[in-house]
Design brief:
about 35% helix; AICAR_Tfase_dup_dom_sf; elongated; 6-stranded mixed beta sheet; Cytidine Deaminase, domain 2; alpha/beta; Bifunctional purine biosynthesis protein PurH; 3 domains; about 20% strand; Cytidine_deaminase-like; about 525 residues; Rossmann fold
């Protein structure tokens, strides 16, 4: 394929569902001497605005039919987009079959994604699957050696600007960039369709993994300033950080978004109707979490768990942010607050903190909704189901001579929920349904237990408590104890009950250590590694 750098735009085909900006852009094309071809609704809008355009049906010599299912699917359209200008055979075919050469395509697709988002039923969603649009986009993008393809108004703006600069011509670099974007657009569109159809199938095919949709925001940088980054939508939208409304504060960073997500996913584990939850996250790990009767109390307890780490933290709440909680949050430097909603008085208080980012999600991410979690590895993507595993009291197996008391049981279930959201190896001490010490991301379970205790000792010093809150606490371990030493460390920290998956070949030694100390231990039968 010979590639011509600058190539003129003499004829354009415009077929758009979203007609915003259409007339103004078409006028600019017409003014540049470009002939316009158009389909039904687009043609009508142009004609009504006094912009001259030819009816695509006049070219195909077929009317639009089957409710628009067939309008541009014709060799006279696709030939004009696909013909190689330097191939004699292609040029002769255009001449002998009355195929008009098309140099520019402007198409935006039937709003399939919007139909899904509005909860339309399957039949209505299927009606919104665009066939002719993607076919033309692919044809034009394939032939970008000569053809410009635009899938959004801003693409056409870039083409018009290039035409202004190059006497009605466009450079190859722009055409290639637009072609790459066009194929990304049709890929995202097809992904949305595949996901919607798979949602109606009991055991969907997983032979191909497709994810990702439009960019929601171009972030200033990634985890570090030298890394480019962006936030993208996925086909299965859930209320959460990606779809949240930012009501105040500085631009969100990559790390803010990642941490706000980690915080909100944990806060959403707790039923907002029965208990208020507050979570403080630093570097993707909770440094404090608590549930209580009110949000303010939950927040104060979460903060007390590790006031040093909470500085510059991300706070997530499972209920509407109220004035009392906002007041408490505003007292220390906080990067982000994320909550389902906020009342007026709370927003008024936080508005004094100009840099504090406030995100309102309109709801909580559904902790029971299945979905994918994706991690990139060299040369591939590692894909797994989201960890929506949960245990309730009836799933627990009491393995020690002593059973947990009622209040220990409440704390065990709380600690187990928190430990699921802590990077492995993870140990969480909890008391009165607040974390007392968290040991995260250690390469040995024993070290995680020791770290959690050290954190509790530091918190006691900060809060001027007589003893660390691990005294009389419970302990959760995200995976089984391979040796009794981790259990011993928990006992030394003051834990009186332990929750862990069980399943080690040394379970007996581990249970013996608990029995000897007179503490209670329960097995969940479920592990919550998190890397
Ligand atoms: N069937 C076809 O041949 C066809 N050709 C273009 N379209 C779509 O029709 C829409 C524009 O329709 P109108 O100009 O009638 O409002 C565009 O979103 C375009 O992508 C088609 N529609 C669906 O497949």
């Amino acid at each position: 394929m010979a590639e011509t750098d600058l190539y003129p735009v003499k004829r354009a085909l415009i077929s758009v569902s979203d007609k915003s900006g259409l007339v103004e852009r078409a006028r600019r094309l017409a003014k540049a001497g470009v002939e316009i071809i158009s389909t039904g609704g687009t043609l009508k809008a142009l004609t009504e605005a006094g912009v001259k355009a030819r009816d695509a049906s006049e070219i195909t010599e077929y009317p639009e039919m089957m409710d628009g299912r067939v309008k541009t699917l014709h060799p006279r359209i696709h030939g004009g987009l696909l013909a190689r200008r330097e191939e004699r055979g292609d040029v002769e075919a255009m001449a002998s079959h009355a195929i008009p050469q098309i140099d520019l395509l402007m198409v935006n697709l039937y709003p399939f994604e919007e139909a899904v988002a509005s909860g339309a039923d399957l039949k209505d969603c299927i009606a919104k699957i665009d066939v002719g649009g993607p076919a033309m986009i692919r044809a034009a993008a394939k032939n970008h050696a000569h053809v410009c393809v635009c899938v959004e108004g801003e693409d056409l703006d870039a083409v018009l600007a290039a035409m202004d600069r190059h006497d009605g011509q466009t450079p190859l670099a722009l055409r290639r960039k637009l072609a790459a974007k066009a194929f990304s657009r049709t890929a995202a569109y097809d992904t949305a369709i595949a996901h919607r159809l798979a949602g109606d199938v009991e055991e969907p095919a997983r032979d191909y993994f497709t994810e990702g949709g439009p960019r929601l925001s171009a972030l200033r940088y990634g985890e570090n300033p030298h890394q480019k980054a962006g936030l993208y939508a996925v086909a299965e939208a859930r209320p959460g950080v990606a779809t949240a409304r930012q009501v105040q504060g500085k631009e969100l960073s990559f790390n803010n978004i990642a941490d706000a997500d980690a915080a909100l996913e944990l806060a959403a584990e707790f039923d907002a109707g029965t208990e208020a939850a507050a979570v403080i996250v630093k570097h993707a790990n909770p440094c404090g979490a608590a549930v209580a009767g009110t949000l303010a109390e939950a927040y104060e307890n979460a903060l007390a768990a590790d006031p040093v780490s909470a500085f510059g933290g991300i706070v997530a709440l499972n209920r509407t942010l109220d004035a009392q909680t906002a007041d408490a949050v505003a007292r220390i430097f906080t990067e982000v607050v994320i909550a389902p909603d906020a009342d007026e008085a709370a927003l008024e208080i936080l508005s004094g903190k100009k840099n504090l980012r406030v995100l309102l999600t309109g709801g909580l991410p559904d902790r029971t909704q299945p979905g994918w979690s994706v991690k990139s590895v060299a040369g591939g993507l590692l894909v797994q189901e989201r960890d929506i595993g949960r245990v309730t009291q009836k799933d627990l197996k009491i393995v020690t001579e002593r059973a947990p008391s009622e209040s220990e049981m409440a704390d065990l279930l709380f600690a187990w929920t928190v430990v699921k959201h802590v990077k492995s190896n993870a140990i969480v001490y909890a008391k009165n349904r607040a974390t007392a010490g968290i040991g995260m991301g250690q390469t040995s379970r024993l070290e995680a237990a020791r770290l959690a205790f050290r954190k509790a000792e530091e918190a006691a010093r900060e809060n001027k408590w007589d003893a660390p809150a691990t005294e009389g606490s419970v302990c959760a371990s995200d995976a089984f104890f391979p040796f009794a030493d981790g259990v011993q460390a928990a006992i030394e920290a003051g834990a009186t009950a332990i929750i862990q998956p069980g399943g080690s070949i040394r379970d007996e030694e581990v249970i013996d250590a608990a029995n000897q100390a007179g503490i209670a231990m329960v097995f969940t039968g479920m592990r919550h590694f998190r890397h």
